[in-house]
Amino acid sequence: MGKSPKNRISVEIYGQTYNMVGPESTAHMHAVAATVDERMREIKLANPVLSSTQLAVLTAANAINDLMKLQQQVESLEAELNKKDEVND
Asked: Which residues contact 11 (CB under 8 A, 6 or more apart)?
């Protein structure tokens, strides 16, 4: 199995520079970094006393919460489609 090419970029998230490496496009990686930065800034505005570590953990927890909700929605929609397929067979 061949390795997919990896892109390498530097991004800034909440005032810190990070190197990102992955098979995704650089546009995608920039969008990810921008979204993380935006979410961190939103959380900091609502909770100005948070340390950077606390802020990062809350941002990660919120992102996983969003992911889990989306996964549940996908599973629900897939189940709905399967029911419709069974009716149409």
From this structure: 17, 18, 20, 29, 30, 33
